[in-house]
Write a structure and sequence with these properties.
two-stranded antiparallel ribbon; single chain
Length: 430
């Protein structure tokens, strides 16, 4: 949550330093990768994509939304979201298959219709030729009767004994020879016609089956289109659920939540705008947060504290009275008990443990809500960065960082502890 408006409550405070090998560009990695359209991913692609790439979060500082984190709610939100994307991928794949099948069916239907049309033309030609032959055979039968004086139907011509032909029946012999050829032609035409009728009947049955399949496939296209639309409408809500639960997800490598990392990272980025070249990095602030309050989860109060999604710590963390006991300095009340609820002595407050008087000169609004609140980690982290830069003058070297930590707490053991944790956090790639 990088505040767009930084309200400086006061201009006094400490500063931090940075390891020489640290990356000093607070804006590094700020360029967003190409945003994927989750609804267009295949099942295979979904198995090889990071949730942060699928659901970037512009409200988190650069890179934080791509950090691996876990919590029952976050994991469930991711699982539900990915399952919905798989349903969409399956629906889109099935819809594509159905549409491809429709194209194939239309092509098959056209092919069958073309073939049927050709068969019908061929059948008309065969029937025409068969009628012509039948007429010719009837004419031959008449001529046969005239030439031979017999009444044989021409269909029996092939059975005549040539020796029984009248000696003067040369014309009869010619008629018989022609008739035999025509009879053979007629038989061939009938056989072709029968084959054609069988093929045509087969094509008509196939066409009927294609028509049924086409209707069924068209219904599938409609059903898958509806399913795809309905599934896609759920995506924004599921994405919002992932974003909502991401802030409170736990980062095992760092042992704190995403919202905590975002508070530190946002503060480092904003600090560079306030103090160009100072070089505060998120891990430097994390070192302070770890020692001061275990990142807002200090459990010394009656109930363990925690940081909510907006960065507010509850119950509020309030230190012991600075009355000289337990090797503390004596600092009488400076805020009327407003921040530390103690009207007699000051107490360190918030996740970064600011003394009210120090907060009064260094407290900044880190979350952009118009108020600088030491009990909000975004505000407290930015204020700590501001304080480090003011007191150290720059934290781009280990000496400068140690100088800033010492200004934060005048104790060598404190500096060593914070510096050690900071270097450990530096190993985490953001």
């Amino acid at each position: 949550m990088l505040a767009l408006l930084i309200n400086v409550v006061t201009s006094a405070g400490p500063a931090t330093a940075q390891e020489p090998t640290a990356d000093t560009s607070a804006a590094d990695d700020s360029g967003e990768s190409d945003v994927l359209r989750p609804e267009q991913l295949t099942l295979e692609q979904l198995e090889n994509v990071e949730i942060g790439d699928l659901i970037p979060d512009p409200e988190l500082s650069p890179g934080v939304d791509r950090v691996a984190a876990t919590s029952p709610e976050y994991d469930e939100a991711i699982s539900t979201y990915l399952n919905q994307l798989r349903l969409i991928a399956e629906a889109r794949e099935s819809l594509g298959t159905a549409k491809e099948l429709l194209v194939e069916l239309q092509a098959t239907k056209q092919e069958i219709r073309t073939r049927l049309s050709e068969r019908r033309r061929e059948r008309r030609a065969l029937v025409f030729e068969l009628d012509r032959i039948e007429n010719h055979l009837r004419a031959l039968a008449v001529n046969e009767y005239v030439s031979s004086g017999t009444t044989n139907a021409h269909t029996q011509i092939q059975g005549l004994d040539p020796t029984s032909i009248h000696e003067g029946g040369r014309s009869f012999q010619l008629i018989e020879e022609v008739g035999e050829v025509q009879v053979e032609n007629r038989a061939g035409l009938k056989a072709s016609l029968e084959t054609l009728d069988v093929d045509q009947a087969s094509d008509e049955k196939q066409l009927a089956r294609v028509a049924l399949t086409t209707t069924s496939t068209q219904n599938d296209v409609e059903d898958w289109s509806i399913a795809l639309f309905e599934s896609s409408t759920k995506i924004p809500e599921l994405e919002a659920a992932v974003r909502d639960h991401r802030r409170m997800a736990y980062i095992p490598e760092l042992e704190f939540d995403v919202v905590v990392l975002d508070a530190y990272n946002s503060a480092a980025i904003a600090s560079e705008l306030i103090h160009p070249g100072c070089g505060v990095q998120w891990w430097m602030l994390a070192g302070i947060g770890r020692v001061e309050s275990r990142h807002g989860t200090y459990n010394g109060t009656p109930d363990p504290s925690s940081v909510d999604a907006a960065g507010f710590v509850s119950p509020q963390i309030i230190g012991i009275p600075l009355n000289g006991d337990s090797e503390t300095a004596v600092i009488t009340d400076t805020d009327g008990g407003l921040l530390d609820r103690d009207p007699i002595f000051d107490r360190a407050v918030g996740p970064m443990q600011f003394i009210p008087s120090t907060w009064a000169g260094n407290g900044l609004d880190g979350d952009g809500d118009g108020e600088a609140n030491p009990h909000n980690l975004y505000d407290a982290a930015l204020s700590a960065a501001h304080y480090l830069c003011r007191t150290a003058g720059g934290v781009t070297t280990s000496e400068g960082l140690r100088r800033g930590y010492f200004a934060y707490n005048h104790s060598d053991s404190y500096v060593n502890a914070v510096y050690g944790f900071a270097l450990g956090y530096q190993q985490f790639e953001l």
